[in-house]
Amino acid sequence: MALLLAEAGADIAVNYRERSAEAEQVAAAVQALGRRAIAVAADVSDNAAVTPMVSTVAAQLGPVDILVNNAGIALIRGIDDLTEADFDQTIAVNLKSAFLCIQAVLPHMRAQGWGRIVNISSGAARGAGGVGLHYNASKAGMEGLTRGYAARLVKQGITVNAVAPSLIETDMVKSGLASSPSRIPLGRFGTSEEVAQVVLMLVGNAYTTGQTLPLSGGMSFN
User: Can you give the pTM of this predicted structure?
Assistant: First the structure.
């Protein structure tokens, strides 16, 4: 995702919480494309970390005009295994983080009269999924957050949309979920690049806002 946005002309700030080496690799790959890039550590579920993160990005790269909220956690739990701590952590990482980051960058976007916000939701927002009801709730909340912000920012040059991937070939899907490509009408998992292509389309389109675009390989239809 970072590389496609960089190829389109964006400078990139890569947020991470623990995987510093991978974040630095992405930043280096962006720099190799001729764009500026930094890796910034922050727990985006904590406002005390989000505020200085955005300040660091603005100081080194300039005002933030594109935000992709893709922080996520998927604790696989059944109804009887799910604890309050699991629920709270999932909502904080998957949903609260998007709220905090949007609030932090809005002054930048409003000052410029232009902004693009893309939230990464999930097919689990509208279906059962394989993670658990806490995950369903966090991703459904992400779509509500998307519509709420979109309706209130539409006249300020700021669009807010969501992308809802289903089974994408990530480490989580390959190691944590008992998922098979045979469930998917297209016969394969989606790729991270295909998700990134939709994000790039939303960043480049000024007339689409408040929408959630599914990437399901034909598993579901809106």
Answer: 0.91
